[in-house]
Amino acid sequence: MKNNRYKKTSSIIAKRRKARRYVGIFLKISLPVAFFIGLVFLLRADFLQVKSFEVLSAETVQTESIKNAASDFISGTNFFLLPRSNILFLSKANLAAALLSKFGRLENVEVNKQFFSRSIKLSVSERKEDFLWCSDQGKCFFMTKDGFIFDLASFVVADKVIFRGLLNGNPLMKNFSTPEKMQNYSGFIEILKNADFQISSINIESNDKATAKSNTGDIIFSPDEEDLSTVAQNVILLINNIKSKTPSAQFSYVDARFGNKIFYKLY
Q1: Would you tell me which CATH number, out of the four given (3.40.50.2000, 3.40.50.11690, 3.40.50.620, 3.30.70.1350), belongs to the domain 131-266?
Q2: Would you give the distance in Å from CA 264 to the centre of its chain?
Q3: pLDDT for 114-138, tens place per residue?
Q4: Which of 93, 137, 187, 244 is the 20 to 30 A CA-CA neighbour of 201?
Q5: Distance from C-alpha of 254 to C-alpha of 235, rounded to nearest angstrom
Q6: Backbone dihedral region for residue 211 (phi beyond 0: left; psi -120 to 50: alpha; all else: beta)
Q7: What is the pTM of this model?
């Protein structure tokens, strides 16, 4: 009789232990799942979602276009659960990179989160239209002083120097030349301009020949010349010297590719 009671008690204890084990397993699984589900609902809550964008300092690029692109960037979800519009996890660097990639005219985008108003402030700066680059087919694009081609030019600006050559295919978001060479070209243009020789275009024809179209005739120089300022000064001295003797002289070209030896041809 005692033995039967002992077996019955042991069976009850075993069942209780088994039940507690199941409860423990259930809690270990359900609590993290419940926490995760609750966290997802929290992150999807309306008060954590971006509601608007504010664009500052846009000049040529339309403000609404930038806002629309930013809205497209935050649409959808990450991992099929977390909304990309969550202001806490929105990557400022990724948003800025997306806008810079879409709008070639933009040079910099600064992203600031406004948590209380649930808005994003986008402070942008645009590239300057320092030069034009034109293809052989006559299609022109805006280019910075550093040689970066960033936007199609729907019109040719009269006072912008046109560069040609070097690039094939679509030139957008490409460099025409290095910043150092562009600075060299700019110095060449500026010195001639100060002497009343207006440069309308520069065509890089090959590694050793570039032609600058001017109101005095073609000026031929080497695009790899390290000091084009000196070349420009020598050209000015030659032209002024000849015109002092023959004021009506008209130049077909001046070839300054050979150091101190400058060749020229008159009409």
Answers
A1: 3.40.50.11690
A2: 42
A3: 998 999 999 999 999 999 999 988 8
A4: 244
A5: 7
A6: beta
A7: 0.76
